[in-house]
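Q: Hi! First time doing this. I have a protein sequence and I read that you can turn it into a structure. Is that right? Here it is:
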Amino acid sequence: MSDVAIILTPIPRPRFLTALCAVNKIGGHVLETSGGPIAILDDASPESAEKAARTVSAFIKGPEFMLAESREGNVRVQVWKAGAVDREVPAGLALADSPGVVTSLLTRASTFEEIAETHEDKVHSTDVGRIKAYRELIKETNALRKKMGA
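A: Yes, that's right. Below is the predicted 3D structure, encoded as structure tokens:
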């Protein structure tokens, strides 16, 4: 049984999250969900998952990000803010309103491959060149600023 690590974000644009992960060499896939994009990490080791959460949450200082991990049947959820763990929260409470796909992945009711098969148009790989990812990140950052009126 392999571990699972997912970053749930307040970022409304999946391409932004995909580019952010690619620029920072965070391997995985971004999945568009009803609750916004999530990053499913290729390397779910505690060290790698924490590094990814630190990197993503440090890029945008204000909002909270959640790192949800499933290890040996136990689910743990941490809230990250500005590159640091803000607090740990009970998994049931934290994930109560999350999209069903998150629960399916964490409980291993479904694998990422099974979900990707039925949602091909909603899956984005972070395995792109850094220059392309950097350009996409600039484009997406500008689009977000425009949307937010900044």
